[in-house]
Amino acid sequence: MARGGGVWVLAVMLWALAGCDKDDDGGKSKSREAESRNDKAAPAVPPAPKVEGAWTGRWQSASHKGHGGGLDCVAKQTGPDAWTATFTAEFGRTKAYTIPLEGKRDGDAVRFGGEVDIGKEKGEGKFTWTGKATATEFSGTYEGGGDKGTFSMQRKQEEKAKE
Question: What class, spelled out in words, does domain 53-162 have in CATH?
């Protein structure tokens, strides 16, 4: 008899528990709550900042005090996360280098980094660099050619007028 009574108590407990998740509306309120949660749109992700266009600013050596100069860049998008950039730097003379950029979105910025060999015949060799671009600023660090330092650029005025 104890065995049969135990089964009966277990059956009553399971029946009671099965009814616990239902409200007066037959459990419909929980599904409405779930639907309500699903109807709430996820916060909109802002578009990636526009990297393409003309930038202007300066580079500054950290290795050689007082060494720095003007820096311009024209970036052209070549793929979803890829650009080519032509940097024109002033350092005793003006030189232009076109390099590939690959970036990854990070919040309201695109982060770049890499290594580029700008030519042994020019005496510059390999450079490693990191940087980020927002809607208004393109900045970063570089190291190579016996130097290391920073660069910082803003959109050129004619680019700002287009936006």
Answer: mainly beta
